[in-house]
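Researcher: I'd like a structural prediction for the single chain below. Treat it as a standalone chain; there are no partners to consider.
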Amino acid sequence: MSQLNALSIAVQAGVPVLTWGPPGIGKTAAVTMLADGLSLPLEVVLASIREPADFSGLPVIREDGVHMEPPAWAKRLVRAGKGMLFLDEISTAPPAVQSALLRIVLERVVGDIALPDSVSVVASANPAEQCFSGWELSAPLANRFCHLVWSLDTHNWVEGMVRGWTVSDLPHLSPDWEKSVPETQALIAAFIRHRPHLLLQVPKDETQAGKAWPSPRSWSMAARLLAAAQAVREEEDVVALLVSGCVGEGACRELLAWRRDFDLPDPEAVLADPAGLRLPERGDQAFAILTAVIAAATGSLTEERWAAAWSVLAKAVEQGRKDIAAVAAKKLAQAKKPEFPLPQKELREFIPLLQKGGLM
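Model: Treating it as a single chain, here is the predicted structure.
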């Protein structure tokens, strides 16, 4: 059930997902049931029998020039305005087809049309050694997915055989769930500041390069999925599946252990009482707190929250953290609305920095 919950969250968050597992384990059935459970039109495309033009578009000459005509399945998704594109058996697609898939997976562009933002991309793959004429995924294509390894749960399989195959109690994201994305981005930024070598680690082994590994792109996907999982209060095992599916198991373990090592205060509580802020001695913790507070303030900025955020930064300066506060001050200054007054007292320490950056 954890795998299905993780898949459901990723689909609703708009992050491309690739499910891995041996043939016959139920990957396709799970995707089909999920589409039905989320009331999404499903378009199944078998990658192994397609040509590059089936994804990049077929050249068609018209009066105003050459157009890249999209396939019928793409047009159906555009008309529906939402849906799920399921790329089955992607590991049997030759390199040329994999290259044609790059823009679809990342930008959702097929030929000369763009799929709606509410269309999610899901793919499935069998390990290369377990499929006929299999290919390793190219590193650029693999790094565009959240990889979920599908395993067999005997108990669930027996229940399904006896009672029928259904999905229930799927997590559903609320319309405003994305408001917390800046906070998880701030959290991951603080972690990478602490562990900079984990920002980009391209595997040298071809097999591993076709799976999940850390990059700026995959960390951004991880931040989005972490926010989505937190929005529905998912269990830690689902969070781990989603984050490791983006950046790999090793980087995921380090991030989650680092996050557990200290409890970040609620950014809203800090904004409500800036005078009560006491930053920890560790620089990575202080950075995480300040960036999360500024992300929360700018995510729903009012004049009151604008002033409170500057008070937080001023408090950080008082506690000897001017270097860390300066990073957050730049982002806060960029979010200023014309009608907001400048808090002269709190801003005093940052004026030279902001003037140098053209923000004042």
